[in-house]
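REQUEST FORM: STRUCTURE PREDICTION
Request ID: SP-0412
Submitted by: Lab K.M.
Chain count: 1
Length (residues): 250
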Amino acid sequence: MDGFKDERLIVLPTEAIADFYCMKGEGIIELGREKYHLHENEAFCIPSRTGHVYYAVKDNPWTILWVHFKGEDVGLYPLDGRKVIRFLSQNALNRIQSLFELLFWVLDRNYTLGNFIYVSQVLQLILSEIYYREKGQEIPAQNKHVTNVIRYMYKNIDKELTLADISEEFQLSKSYLSAIFKSYTKKSPIEFFLELKMNEACKYLRSSDVYIYEVANMLGYSDQYYFSRIFKKIVGVSPKEYRKDDSVRF
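STATUS: Completed
RESULT:
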């Protein structure tokens, strides 16, 4: 395609994945034999290295914001799902438009390292706004339960919660709680809680000089050696080894 009327184009040598946001009108995106119809206030991501064609609907041509991108962090987002994302609130629309405008404003300036770092952060905000920010009615009840349980876990990171404790707190059956956690996190509730604890332990070990038994106590473990066994099982090395070796990452 040669471009659109009133197109604002900034070209950088980093293009790989295309993200489209339809502000007004309608348009079509074709990926092989699959066809996606974008309407006003909808977004769509074209996966990397996927042949595609896109064009406006003749009787109601679209106005779009779009960006090509790539990078190590793209794996954090579900960009291969080929799913049309719809924004339901005016606040969400205002946020995404403001972020795109900020992105273009920075790219219109100098191509310095600082600006590229800033742009990468804005782009992550755009992707998070599209794919991860809660969208009210779009969030199923199971997802809300998982979100609330994780918040509860963070607030009680210094305790030894059991599945029964969590189930009783939220008045959910243990089987239901386990099923929805597996669905959304690929882990059981207790596995997820232990990983949260060990992640906190990693922060303490790297950012402070507190003793290992003190880290264990802060996370609800009265037995330092039991804590160390759990830590090694999940992180892969002992707390002492983790503290000494900066190359180890969890």
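NOTES: The beta strands are 17-24, 27-31, 34-38, 42-46, 53-56, 63-69, 85-86.
Reviewed by: T.R.
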